[in-house]
Amino acid sequence: MNNYLNQSGPTLIAGAVVGLVLITAGILFTALFPWLIVAGTVILAYTFWKLWVIYVKPVNQLKHWTQMIRAGDFEAQFSEHPKGDYQGIFKELQFIGEMLRSLSRDAESQLQKHTTHIRQKTRSLSILYDVASSINLSRSVDSLLSQFLHTITELIDAQVSVAYLVDDQEVELLTHINANEELVRINARQCLASTASGTLNIKLIKCSDSIKNKYFDGQDIYLLVVPLQYQETLLGAYNFYLRRSSLDDFDDYVELFTSIGRHLGAAIEKSHLDEEATTLSIMRERTHIANELHDSLAQTLTSIRFQVRVLDETLHQGDEAQTWAEMEKIEAAINEAHTEIRELIAHFRAPAIVANLISSIEQTIDRFRQVNDEIQVFFQNEWDDISLPAETEFHILRIIQESLTNIRKHSDASNVRIMLSSHADGRCSVLIEDDGVGFSEPKTSLHGGEHIGLSIMGDRARRFGGSLNVESEPGEGTRIVLEFECNNQTEKADNELESTRTHH
To answer: Theoretical Cys-Cys bridge with 337: which of 177, 199, 300, 405, CB 3.0 to 4.6 Å?
Structure first.
């Protein structure tokens, strides 16, 4: 027993100690368990917070920034700059963002410049179109120049504008806007822009102090000179007083002003040519009237004067029967003169523009029949769908009228045939023939005689590219043939019609 106790005593003690420790540990674990939970929770929360700050938040910033960039907002920036592994990346991205912002601003600036340039070019093209169309529509070069003086004045915000015409080195004031008489008078001399000097270049010149102080309240004023020219000839000039800021893009306007100056210069030259053409037309018409009078009325009056002399001699002889015979001749001559005057008046009163050629020809034939009922006139029209320019129709009508006049006066014909024909080769013809006495060696010169009318008709035919052929033999009547290219004439007529529709 004692041995047993001696041997088991330490074991029991150890067991008791272990038991006590376990009991104590259990008691302690039970007491510390809530604190262990709290400590674990805190450690876990801290860990998640560090993960958010270091990794998740920068990634979200980066995602948001990229979305804004993709949406076109190149001004997007990072709200915070992280530290650690992402710091270098964010600095590089920030640099890229600044580059994108710079490129965006440059692109926007260039776009604005291009937009302004396109807008200015569009405005310039619109003005040039207006100039071109107005040249065709305007009947007065003065009103045309005045119109575009106002247009350019508004375009460049000029304070004073002046338009001049130059003729044989003489400068003539055409019109002005807001200019007083004194400024207009000293314009070229004081601002070094004499329009009579022959300059053909666009000039922008700073005006003298005396000009700006006296007329523009001390403002720095420039004079823009736009020459109005045809080829290398100066025909006029536009002068504009304006601030330099109104033409910041002066180089962009040079082409516009040059084109306007050349277009308006061409209009001035056209006006001069039209005046010359009108003068020439009047001279031709005067010559034509003189020829008509010489060929008709003058000869009749000469005949009357001769018959009056014969009547005087007959009266002195006391031959009553012969006296009455001569008086009847004089009366017939006077009636002939009266008829010729009526025909001339009818010809000269006829409009220069034929409303309808066929109907006008028929009216001419009707009038001829009323005066000359002993002559039969047959009219045949084979022109189908042929349109001719107004000038061509006028000359054709005149040729037919003059042919009928010659037939009445000289042919002693009984029948007349007028035929309008078109041919497969694109030519048209007008045939006028009679069965009268005819003649030999028809004279086509401009010198007097009974055939001067043929020369006049030939001249009319050449005016629209036609030809006139006269065939006649004594006792065989006379045949007059007018030929011309009607295809080309039709194209001209179509162009005239289209131009008229456009203008209207």
So the answer is: 300
Percent of the chain with pLDDT over 70: 67
Q: What is the pLDDT of residue 315?
A: 85
423: containing domain: 354-504
Q: In terms of DSSP bridges, do strands 376-381 and 415-422 run parallel, antiparallel, or are they unpaired?
A: parallel
396, 499: one domain:
yes
Same domain for 118 and 182, yes or no, is no
Is pLDDT of 480 > 90?
A: yes
* 70 and 146 fall within a common domain: no
Helix H or strand E segment including 321: helix 320-349
C-alpha to C-alpha distances, 463 to 270, 393, 421, 428, 467, nearest whole angstrom: 20, 12, 20, 16, 10
Average pLDDT rounded to a whole number, residues 324-353: 74
Going 30 to 32 to 38 to 43, the CA torsion angle's sign is negative
- Pair 155, 252 in one domain: yes
Residue 407 lies in a domain: yes
8 Å CB contact between 411 and 439: no
Q: Please report which residue ranges of 243-296 form alpha helices under DSSP H.
A: 250-295
pLDDT digits (tens, 9 = 90+) for 144-181: 888 888 888 888 888 888 888 887 767 778 888 888 77
- Taking the C-alpha atoms of residue 402 and residue 394, their distance in angstroms, rounded to an integer, is 12
Name the domain count of the chain. Answer: 3
Question: pTM higher than 0.70 for the full model?
Answer: no
- Which phi and psi (to 5°) does residue 275 adopt? -60, -45
